[in-house]
Amino acid sequence: MGRQDIINFINKKYNANPEYLWRRYPDFCVFRRADNKKWFAIIMKISRGILKIPGEGAVDIINVKTDNAEFLRGVPGFLPAYHMNKNNWVTVLMDGTVPIGNVKKLIEMSYNATQ
What we know:
The protein has 4 helices and 5 strands. By secondary structure, the chain is α+β, with helices and mostly antiparallel strands.
């Protein structure tokens, strides 16, 4: 499941359209709750070098809010949140390392955590 599949999933389940807020970063999109306008997810394409992970080029990631951020950072496919509060948010690699079912559960947790 790729980037567009996740965008479609979020749109269908949470009725949230991607918002592309930065002209300079056309691959960055945020998702907000309809009721309070709080972000519950952000998808970005970030250089592996910036993330300090092996490999060349860039990788799609999703940042989600979770109470388990500290624990998850020790699991393959999870990193300290890129450009977000590292105590409450975690970066999830969208390269297949983390099973899509787990990504969907984390999106749900993040949606609920931003009430």
